[in-house]
Structures are given as C-alpha cells and as structure tokens.
Write a structure and sequence with these properties.
The protein contains no helices and eleven strands. By secondary structure, the protein is mostly beta strands. The strands form two sheets. Strands 2, 4, 5, 6, 9, 10 and 11 form a seven-stranded mixed sheet that branches. A hairpin with a 4-residue loop joins strand 7 and strand 8. The chain is globular.
C-alpha cells in the first residue's frame, strides 16, 4: 500500500510561483508519478508526469514552459514547480502513482492518489 501526501498549495497572485511537493510512503523508485488537478465544476485533468528514473516527462499543453516536474528517489518525493501562475490554474492538485514506469497521462492509469492541495491564483 502506498500513501501520498501533498503540500505546498496556497493563495497567490497571477504571475507568482508555487512549489508543490508530494511524499510517498511505500514503493516509489520503480514507478512513474503524476500530478493532476480538479477545478470547480470540472473533471480531474492531467497536469504533468515523470518516469520512474526522472528521464522522461509529459506535460499538459497549457502548462508547458511554466511548470516543471521533478523527483528525488532517495527521498521518495516528487515536486511540481509552477511559475507564471494564471487564474485558470486554480484547482485542487493531486499527486498520483502508477504501477508502470512510463509517465502516463490518463487518470485511469494511476493506482494511488493523495488527498490534494488547494492552489488558488487571484487575478
């Protein structure tokens, strides 16, 4: 069983930066990790993912060039650096782990989920 705990959310202004972090207990280094988000009234959507060794990443088009996903297998952590935040980035952000090693982008590919952390970007 894997438990995921996110941290780092908050209220910021447009153009600001935030760094989200997710710490995993249990198996970590062999599996890809992802970040997803759910805005009010919308479905949960893919944001970014990183392969088991950090060698491959995937991003949602709207965050490319602004967000960076990274991982530290020695510390069982995955981070999402978010720069140039926009009001449309406002959502609850979730960390997730898949049983596969590649950075998958579909929600159904992920087996374990954190509780989420709120990110609010004001205009």
């Amino acid at each position: 069983q894997v438990q995921l705990v996110e941290s780092g959310g908050g209220l910021v202004q447009a153009g600001d930066s935030l760094r989200l972090s997710c710490t995993a207990s249990g198996a970590f280094s062999s599996f890809a990790m992802g970040w997803f988000r759910r805005a009010p009234g919308r479905e949960r959507e893919f944001v970014a993912a990183i392969g088991w060794n950090g060698g491959s990443t995937s991003y949602r088009n709207s965050v490319k060039g602004r967000f960076t996903i990274s991982r530290d297998n020695a510390k069982n952590t995955v981070a999402l650096q978010m720069n140039s935040l926009r009001p449309e980035d406002t959502a609850v952000y979730y960390c997730a782990q898949t049983k596969y090693g590649a950075p998958l982008i579909t929600t159904s590919s992920y087996d374990y989920w954190g509780q989420g952390t709120q990110v609010t970007v004001s205009s």
